[in-house]
Amino acid sequence: MYPSNFDYQRAASVADAIQKGSSDGAKFLAGGHSLLPALKLRLNEPESLVDIARLDALKGISVTGSSVRIGALATHAQIAGSADVKKHAPALASACGQVGDPAVRNRGTLGGNLAHTDPASDPPTVVLALGGKLHLQGSGGNRVVAAEDFFLDLFTTDLHPGELITAVEIPSIGQAKSAYAKMAHPASRYAVVGVCVVLEVSGGKCSKARVAVGGATPKATLSAAAANALVGSSLDTAALDAAAQALSADLSDVMGDVYAPEDYRRAMAGVYLKRAVRAAMG
Amino acid sequence: MAAAEKIIGSRIKRREDPRLITGEAKYLEDIQLPGLLHAAILRSPHAHAKIKSIDTSKAAKHPGVIAVYTGKDFADVNPMPCAWQAGKVKNNVNTPRVLEIDRVTFTGAGVAVVVAEDRYMAQDALELIHVDYEVLPAVVDAEKATKAGAPQLHENAPNNIALEWTCGTQDTTDRALKEADVVVKQRMINQRLIPTPMETRGCIAQYQAATEEWTVWMTSQAPHVMRLLMTAFVFGVPETKMRVISPQIGGGFGAKIFLYPEYCLMAALSRKIGRPVKWMETRSENYIATTHGRDHITEIEVGAKRDGTITALKVNTYANLGGVLSTIAPGIPTTLYGRMLSGTYRIPNIFCHVYGVYTNTGMVDAYRGAGRPEATYVIERAVDLVAHELGLDPVAVRRKNFIPPEAFPYDPVILNGLKYDSGQYAKALDLALKMLGYENFRKEQAEARKQGRYLGVGFSSYVEICGVAPSAWIGLPGEGWGAGLWESANVRVHLTGKVVVTTGSQSHGQGHETSVAQVVAGELGISVDDVIVQHSDTLGTPFGYGTYGSRSTAVGTVAVYNSLQKIKEKAKLLGAHMLEAAPEDVVFEDGKVFVKGSPDQSKTIQEIAGAAALAYSLPPGMEPFLDNTSYYDPPNCTFPFGTHICVVEVDKETGEVKIKRYIAIDDVGKVINPMIVEGQVHGGIVQGVAQALWEGAVYDDNGQLLTGSLMDYAIPKADFFPTFETDRTETPTPVNPLGVKGAGETGTIASTPAVVNAIVDALAPFGVKHIDMPVTPPKVWRILQGNGG
User: Fold this and answer.
1) What is the pLDDT of residues B403-435, one digit of tens each?
2) At residue B3, does pLDDT exceed 70?
3) Is A172 exposed, middle or buried (0-12, 13-18, 19+ CB in 10 A)?
4) Looking at the domain assignment, is residue A2 inside a domain?
5) Contact at 8 Å (CB) between B337 and B549?
């Protein structure tokens, strides 16, 4: 509970943050709800913290064209309560409302969450299923990375040293249906498994599907096999069972721990896929 | 007596809450002293190792560091005492030292300490200490530790056996099992728990060289006992050389009863350095270095007649005590466990055998309920196993075997001379069943099963033992402490009529400042606001054994009551004198002394207290002031009881268990403050249900704690529970004049079997007879996978 020494610098602007954050041993500090516990346990001992929490340019939620743009510093609570997010990306609002507890949701930010990319965290799974794009800014300029290219591995992303997430752009689901279903660990409330589905349905048949899983795997993962099992079906019980089996079979690198062994997580991915589809179809 | 009855039993708000809610209460971490230094403790990362050498030279040079010490620097300080040497613990007592010198037997044992100007510097310097360990093989399972070839922890404890204890008679029990119509055998695990009080442990010690006296602030449930053990046993000085203060304590659940090495280390450091030294435990330290609870592996055999009459119970338990013995560790799985195995039933033949075992794990000692939850789990599961085997209703089997009301005081034979004081077990069960609507539930359950939904109901008709104190029982060497655990109280009625009560017991959430004041106000006929209750400082309070085992009301408050009777007697004498009446003609009622039949001419307790304090016209021979001290050694313990019912639904797909209803009927004797009792019952149920469903400390085979943080160790959250349905029956105890039994642990004691019985009932269609705690979703899922679910 006693971090080692570090320097603290408050960034005056995004450019200033990037400059300060580019030095060796620097870490960005936003909501601090993943970083500070790691510091206190001395699992992470950065030389300096660059506080970006007050940069207005990274705040705010807005709708532009057919997508919703969420500033990296938007808190989970703000996203969960945003009318725009509820309309255009309801699964993300729902998932952000299930992160941690009220204190975590009021301080923790979406950008920080995605940059940290804890395998058991809820938002990466949903951003991935919704086809989100991450707007990044670094000393080399700006770039936009699709979520599926951003999450690389356990706690590993495509972020370069000193690069910041500035915003997350989520295409509006329009007429599609979506839902996030999660089994929470009783201690941490992190996802033992979390499944997000996005479904397009016409004439009683599923015409398009995206399925993402988190919690069970080292990183949030899309399953084409599960999506394929849903497409063309009327999302009836047999189709859901088939999709659940396809998902359980499709997942590689399923994690196990003292609470939930690997085979259980694998099976629950299927169960929660079915629950997510049922929730999406209301 | 009208006023007395009104205040005792009334639902007044806790007087300690405003300071707690507003954050004004001062906890140990809030205390600052001039010149205060801060200590950080280096703990062994290995569960079993020899310490070959320790190099502290780099740490000593770190900025801000005052001193670095290892165990060798405190070779003159005695190891911690083991105060409850139950179970023939004789020549194999191994307890912690302030810092271990040459060997560690659990991960988290202290091996070095840094004292620095601030805690951050101390923590930084810890990383600069180099310890050369020779790592030894570890064993963490109590049963395996006793087997041939297991790593040996202590030379004086062959096969790692710290104690072997029995109660009951083996030959008659074996014979009864042979003659029984049915015998059910079951192995059951009562898993290790981590108490997790909101506030971790801490200590500040300040030594004054001129007087050779210490003042020690510590997070203790028993400050007087701490002072006695630290001075007389650890430092070898008179107890008058130390003052111990427990500031506001943020929960203990038993884990703050014990004398820990860190407290003695702070005292030793302050004496060496000449400045006050503080240590406040981190949560990570709390999980590895503070005591744990439970951790039993038990095999039972229960014999019964076809009609459900239980004829014999045989229990064999391996109790894991950890790498070294904590202060009262041997007493928990013996006296407080084996002797309560008869539960609420007439069981003619019982035999219990216990091994207390050393393993390479953290110390295990009393945790809320302490022995009685383990006993209740065994007997209440056993009753259900018998019912299941015979195809009988578990309620009917309970009724068949209940000790009837006319049998009290009841001697369950295994209680070593004590008798259950009073009980109406069927009455509590009936009330609980009525609240449940049992017949309707069975119909609902049958309907649900047809739809593939699995509901279950579980019962627990428990009895427990409180007021652990009677000298004739707990004083017995080899069984108890070698000391009676009497309690004390001093009551003074000041000149202004304000009453100050000091008690040797301690309050860390139990609400003594309210409930004790209610007894005083009721007895003296005054306002609760005129009563001040002081505790938790050895300076100014009479010696007492502290707060645990639901004993403060049944023992400590009875001492207060006894003092109040003596105060009232003196008030009557003085009142009669003031009224110019004969002492035998006056009465004390509603706070006034008057001649029987003439209440208009009276002297109030305040007037009498004033006269006693001013003391210019006292009856010949009377001493000034209304002041009395009592020491109360009860003749018997008290035995709260009741029935808890849990209704669950098990999700067949995921194995998740949802608590649908929780009904608790508790009989804690006479109730002083129903709101406080309900709070205790609610908190207890939450902790018990949490053991049944979520909590469990897990060590790997190398003795590393895998559930070492709140990220992994699942303490319960409010939204895990439905609203509890609670009610009471009230059967006063004849043991004490207040009729009170104790209410601090009933919820924890009753609830685990209620939940597990409910889950087994829900899973009956899958042939499930037993499932071990914590009943996590993966565990249920795996059983269902294997049983065609």
Assistant:
1) 999 999 999 999 988 999 999 999 999 999 999
2) no
3) middle
4) no
5) no
Label residue B205 exposed, middle or buried (CB < 10 Å: 0-12, 13-18, 19+). buried
Strand B293-304 and strand B130-135: the pairing is: unpaired
Nearest-CA distance B282 → chain A (Å): 6
Using an 8 Å CB-CB cutoff, list chain A residues near B782: 264
B713 lies within 8 A of chain A by CB: yes
- Would residue A160 count as lying in a domain? yes
Are the Cβ atoms of B778 and A41 closer than 8 angstroms?
no
Please give the structure tokens belonging to residue A104: 């975590």
Q: How confident is the model at residue B92 (pLDDT cuts 50, 70, 90)?
A: confident
Distance CA B534, CA B764 (A): 53
* Mean pLDDT along residues A5-18: 96
B232/B306 same-domain check: no
| d(CA B644, nearest CA chain A) in Å | 24
* AA identity, residue A30: A
> Across residues B89-100, what is the average pLDDT?
88
CB-nearest to A268 from B654, B694, B714 is B654
| Tens digits of residue pLDDT in B752-770 | 999 999 999 999 999 999 9
Q: CA-CA distance, B368 to A255, in Å (whole number)?
A: 35
Same-domain check for residues B617 and B741: no
Cα-atom radius of gyration of chain B, to the nearest Å? 27
pLDDT per position as a tens digit, B251-280: 999 999 999 999 999 999 999 999 999 999
Residue B480 forms part of a structural domain: no
Angle between helix B438-450 and B425-436 (nearest 10): 50
The confidence band for B85, taking pLDDT boundaries of 50, 70 and 90, is confident
| Pick from B284, B712, B776: CB nearest A41 | B284
